[in-house]
């Protein structure tokens, strides 16, 4: 356990630095937005590109995005049933569904990178392809359905197709299949840019962290479904597809990832319950910081 703790503890400490800077009024949520933009448009595309270009493919990797889709669709059935039992109003019910379905794989990247290296990020990005495809289609549709805004669905599809992480993944896959070797200077460049990912993600999450004590039953129910049921489904698919080694670790970690920040984005865009969304994301981050190091140790 000590080896994993040594690797992931610095990642967690960066989160608390972000939270402390927010509490001290040095950084604000606006700064968190800026950090996430740099992460989304610059650092994570570079890291995904470099990792996937250098990755050695195997047949079991093709199952990663498929498993992500199956995890989300199964959780939808569970969340819909549990959300109705909690008698939530429509905006809160929308957040309950969205918050339990979106897997914050970006949260897992720093932990996977610290504990398992860059190849784990390449596999996590393949898993995230299935996750992201549903986030900007099916899950966004749910946010629109239970919200009060009339957003353009095709705009979201367009954003998905033009997202830098997706484009980096597709280009890298093509170059990998063509057996293209990056020049040394390009490899060093993408390494420098990519290693900004960990501080950018954890600082921004610390800035966004804002747990509330109200409505704890629905909040904790959402967190348990996202992380607990997600983990059980990850275990099921690992054994169903007989995944081994790093792929097994990636599926377990990503399936039990905290609720994604797009929960907050969609809640704000579609006029859902923003306070409920912030609590779900915040408490699931706490659980994630405890659970993911444990999973990395168990699968070590």
From TrEMBL:
Main location: membrane
InterPro entries, sorted: Mem_transp_PIN-like, Na+/solute_symporter_sf
This protein's name: AEC family transporter
Species in which this protein is naturally found: Geobacter argillaceus
Gene3D superfamilies per the UniProt record, alphabetical: 1.20.1530.20
A Pfam family the protein falls into: Mem_trans
Transmembrane segments: 6-22, 34-55, 61-81, 93-112, 124-144, 165-186, 192-210, 217-241, 276-296
Localization (cell): Cell membrane
Entry similarity comment: Belongs to the auxin efflux carrier (TC 2.A.69) family.
Domain of life (superkingdom): Bacteria
GO cellular component: plasma membrane
GO biological process: transmembrane transport
Keywords, sorted A to Z: Cell membrane, Membrane, Transmembrane, Transmembrane helix, Transport
Membrane topology: Multi-pass membrane protein
